[in-house]
Amino acid sequence: MMFKCKLVALGFFSLVVISCGETDLKKVELLEGFRILAVATSSPEVNPGDTVSDIQVYFSDIGSGGRVISGTTVSCIDPGIAFGAGVSCDHDPSSVVGVYNIDTATDDDTSGLFTGLSSATASVNVPATILLGRSPQEQLNGVGYIIIFTFDVSGREVKTFRRILVSTRPTKNLNPGDPVASTLQQNGGALTLPNKGDLFRLLSTTEENYDFLTSENVIENRTEKFQVAWYISKGELDIAKSNVSENVEYTTETPQTPFILIAIVRDERGGTEILQFIQ
Questions:
Q1: I want to staple 158 with a disulfide (CB 3.0 to 4.6 A). Which of 1, 110, 134, 151 is the partner?
Q2: CA 184, 14, 133, 49: dihedral to nearest 10 degrees?
Q3: How many other C-beta atoms can be found within 10 angstroms of the C-beta atom of residue 46?
């Protein structure tokens, strides 16, 4: 069975998960315990004053048997995280707080693997004044509005955030896979339970062109570049991140079922598509 959903997280440099109080040197692609894989929304780029009401956490909690993960949210203007600022809303007196709990047993859609899109949604109201006084580059290229999720997982703090791009760009960014979905392949064909040496790859042809205003006030027409992050419930892959159409090898013996493979493809501007295979 193959399950596809279009999700938006922050982009290559945007989705950061901070896990405090625990050292984890395991394979980054291996799904064990509670992990946040992406934060989803249908609107990766919006206008000032817009409301984004469909923000959802895409998570994995394999091995838990189902539980409630309690969390909080806070949303604010991006303090400049991409330039080294901390993931915090302490700078913004207009920040908005909320709650966000995940019931992994209720939200489970993968035959007991407890991996999927949370049923809970979060909403942010982007300030209409967010671009006032901003440079022409910031107005066209975009300024971030963020929502920070903080979860208490068995006494351990897990934090992630989602950045919504706010701009005057007439044509807003779409998610990869919108309108044409990407395709997962195994050895050039349909997916099945993998054997040692099998090759996975993701095919996508939806990179968008967009205008970017340089510091010299020159508008450049750029093309998005996609990258893919891979996750599995059992076994190992030779690489955890790849380019689109690049082969990723399954390097261990055939796993027992149930088995889950996830590929998350991201652009540089906040768009994300997730493809999920379950056997």
A1: 151
A2: 60
A3: 20
> What tens digit of pLDDT does each residue of 105-151 get?
888 778 789 999 999 999 999 999 999 999 999 999 999 999 999 99
Give start and end residues of each alpha helix (H) in 23-158.
104-107, 136-141
Answer yes or no: are the C-beta atoms of 196 and 250 closer than 8 Å. yes
Report the relative pairing of strands 45-46 and 156-166 from DSSP bridges: parallel
Nearest to 266 by CA among 235, 233, 224, 236: 224
- On whether the CB atoms of residues 148 and 159 are closer than 8 A, the answer is yes
Amino acid symbol at 178:
D
Number of H helices, E strands in the chain: 2, 21
Tens of pLDDT, residues 174-205:
999 998 899 999 999 999 999 999 999 999 98
At 197-250, the pLDDT tens digits run 999 999 998 899 999 999 999 999 999 999 999 999 999 999 999 999 999 999
List the beta bridge partners of residue 72.
99, 150
Sorted by sequence, the CB contacts under 8 Å of residue 128 that are 6+ apart come out as: 48, 49
Question: Residue 26 — very low, low, confident or very high, per pLDDT cuts 50/70/90?
Answer: low
DSSP code of 44?
S
Write out the two tokens for 124: 């942010």
Per the prediction, the chain carries an average pLDDT of 90
Asked if residue 39 lies in contact with residue 274, where contact means CB atoms within 8 angstroms, the answer is no
User: Helices (DSSP H) in the chain: which residue ranges?
Assistant: 104-107, 136-141
Q: What are the tokens at 225?
A: 């570049």
pTM reported for the whole predicted model: 0.88
d(CA 266, CA 141): 18
Token readout for 147 is 């929502």
